[in-house]
Amino acid sequence: MAGKKKHEAPKNNWMDTYGDMVTLLLCFFVLLFSISTVNAEKWVMIVKSFNPAAAENISQLVQEDPNDQKGEHAIGQEAGGLMTDKENFDQIFWAMKEYVEQNNLEESVEVKKGKDFTFIIFRNNIFFNGDSYILRQEGKDILDVLCNSIAPVREQVGELRIMGHTNQADPNNPNPIAGDRFLSSNRAAEVLVYIETKGLIDGKKLISMGYGQHYPIASFVTEADRAKNRRVEIYIAKNDATKYTLDEVYANIEDGSQSGNEKKDESKKTQDSVTEEEV
Question: Are strands 206-212 and 157-165 parallel, antiparallel or unpaired?
Answer without folding.
Answer: parallel
